[in-house]
From TrEMBL:
GO terms for cellular component: cytoplasm. SUPFAM superfamilies: HSP20-like chaperones. This is Nuclear movement protein nudC. Residues 136-154 have a biased composition (Basic and acidic residues). GO terms for molecular function: unfolded protein binding. Required for nuclear movement. May interact between microtubules and nuclei and/or may be involved in the generation of force used to move nuclei during interphase. PROSITE patterns: CS. It is found in: Cytoplasm. GO terms for biological process: protein folding. The lineage of its organism: Eukaryota, Fungi, Dikarya, Ascomycota, Saccharomycotina. Keywords: Cytoplasm.
Amino acid sequence: MPDYNWKQTLQEVTVTIPVPEGTRAKLAKVDIGPKSIKASLITRETPFIDGELFNNVRVDDSTWTIVDQKELVITLEKVNQTEWWPHVITSDPKIDVTKIQPESSNLSDLDPETRAMVEKMMYDQRQKEQGQPTADELKKQQMFEQFKKQHPEMDFSNVEIN
C-alpha cells in the first residue's frame, strides 16, 4: 500500500503524504521529472513515493509544499489533460477510471478549441432531439445546394441524400 493519498482532475494530480508533525520544507526532498517522481525527508531513508509516473507531467508547472507542518502536498500538472490516470506510479495498484465522476465545469473554463467542440456537440444534440439536422448535415446540405446552382444542366430530381 502506498504511503500517500492522491486525487486528480483532468488537469492535475495531487499527491498528499502525511509527514511527522513539525516538518518544515527544508527537510523535504522532492524530485519531479517529466515521467518520474521521488519524495522523501532528509531524515528518512525510504522515500514516501519513488517511481515512474503513469504519464508525463509539466515539470515547470508542478509544485510541492508542506501544509500545516504535517502534510507534503505535491501537485503534478498533466501534459495530456484529456485523460484520467489509473494510478500515479506505474507499479502501484490501478483504480477503475470508468467510475470517476468528473467535477462540473463551465464552458468558460475550457480552452477555445475544446470549448468550440463542446458547443458544437451540444448544438448537435439539441438538433437531434428536435429532429433537426446537425451542423455537419446542414453544411452538407448547403454544399449540395451550392453545387446544384453551379450545375443547372444536371438533373438532381432523383437524388437521395442521407
